[in-house]
Amino acid sequence: MKEIFEKVDFDHIEVDERWCFKNVRSTEQWTHGYHRYPAKFLPNIVKKLIEEYAIDDSMIADIFAGCGTTLVEAKIHGKPSIGVDINPVAKLITQVKIRPLLPMDLHIAYENLLNVFDTFNDADFRYNETHERIDYWFRPQEKVKIAFLYKVISDIDETDFRDFFLVCLSNILKNSSRWLQSSTKPQIDSNKIPSEPFEAFKLHCKKMIKQNASYYKELHSKGFLNTSCQIKLQDARNTSLPSDTIGTIITSPPYVTSYEYADIHQLTGYWFDYIENLSLFRKEFIGTFYSNSQVTETTSSIGQEIIDDLVVKEKRKACEVANYFNDMYNVGKEMFRILKPGGHACIVIGNTMFKGVKIKSAEVFFEMLIDVGFSEEKIIKRSIPYKLIPAIRDKTTGKFTTLDNKNSKLVYPEEYILILKK
To answer: Is 265 helix (H, G, I), strand (E, B) or coil?
Structure first.
């Protein structure tokens, strides 16, 4: 194995401009703009990977489905697909994004919902029992209107329409809360004037309805409305997908030391009763800061060097990174199990830096994938002009910051696309 890695110098791979899409923004096309989501998978990348590697009618899988970019693009291309994600908020968003609704029926459902707005009475919802953390994030005047919206949407009988409007409601929660608008970290903005929930809901719903119409029209014109596409609430380390059944895996794992998705989606989690105990919910996610694991060993030789360097800087961060690497090794084994012989795994992943230590996630995962049985097909390096990730850290503290900080450093300026074959 050592000989393989001596031949692969990730640092000196040239950026492939064909994969950068500097002047193309596709995150609002089709249903991609339904819901804000951190580090959104760029649809153009998925589109190009499908067109180059999903060359037959075999199933496409995304085991870190997130907000469903891979599945939407697969359906647009007429390819059957399946996704899994451990986050119930991600599952809800994805199942709505992949499901085209007849525009006329959706319009009628929306008009019926608007008619119910006239029945709103502040007093009916003033003392509604909700999770205690909702009172922390929401002022009373927004809280009662969101409680009303959640109630009338939940009363809709038709599941597809009910879920569609729930996703719309979920998307406006941050705007209508005291959460610092520009931050992906949970923090209060004491100066913020939250958006009025009814107006915010109507504005975003109109946008979603328009995007659904475009999505429906495209699928109908191509005859792809009934192309198989589904999302499951499952763990990427242990899915229910049968062995040797997936033709192409297209996915982007969570970035180590980046987002805590459980925290980011807690507003929806609390309102929709997905979360009772945030601490327990956090621990289900891969490589989470909250795992409390004390392990500082991993199977990857490259990864072990990184962990040893981190132990000197900050023991807890070393444990977090070790936990991430070990989780990802199990993900690699699961990917190899579900993929058909001859099938391709396409993984978009980037490196980062913490207190002067380069965390080579791409190199480590590549090493692990080779170890579980994959063979190298191609490694692509691309710059990240539009990907919405917290790309700036303080070089001393390792905490996320802004470019105004003289000690700042870009930590995700580039990423890799690993193409491997079973």
So the answer is: coil
- Cβ neighbors of 316 (< 8 A, separation 6 or more) are none
- Tokens 């705007």 locate to 175
On whether the CB atoms of residues 31 and 72 are closer than 8 A, the answer is yes
The type of residue at 88 is P
User: Given this model, what pLDDT does residue 245 score?
Assistant: 97
Selection from 419, 347, 416, 420 nearest residue 19 by Cα:
416
Alpha-carbon separation of residue 196 from 34, 114, 185, 242, 253 (angstroms) = 19, 15, 22, 47, 35
Can you give the pLDDT at residue 26?
67
| Contact status, residue 10 vs residue 416, Cβ threshold 8 Å | yes
What is the distance between the alpha carbons of residues 324 and 263, in angstroms, rounded to a whole number? Answer: 17
Contacts of 170 (CB under 8 A, 6+ apart): 35, 89, 92, 93, 267, 268, 271, 272
Nearest to 422 by CA among 304, 336, 358: 336
pTM over 0.85: yes
Tokens of 12: 């000196």
Mean pLDDT over 78-97 rounds to 97
First to last CA, the chain: 17
Give pLDDT, residue 181: 86
pLDDT tens column, 200-250: 999 999 999 999 999 999 999 999 999 999 999 999 999 999 999 999 999
357 class by beta-carbon count within 10 Å (0-12 exposed, 13-18 middle, 19+ buried)? buried
| 16-25, 93-102, 168-177: least confidently modelled range | 16-25
Cα separation, 150 vs 52, in Å, equals: 43
CB 296 within 8 A of CB 311: yes
Closest CA to 244 of 370, 337, 344: 337
Q: Is 56 exposed, middle or buried (0-12, 13-18, 19+ CB in 10 A)?
A: exposed
Of all residues in the chain, the percent with pLDDT exceeding 90 is 67
- Length in residues, the chain: 422
Nearest alpha-carbon partner for 320 in 282, 300, 302, 294:
294
Q: Is 228 exposed, middle or buried (0-12, 13-18, 19+ CB in 10 A)?
A: exposed
**Structural contact between residues 39 and 390, judged by C-beta atoms closer than 8 angstroms:** no
Residue 169's identity, in one-letter code, is L
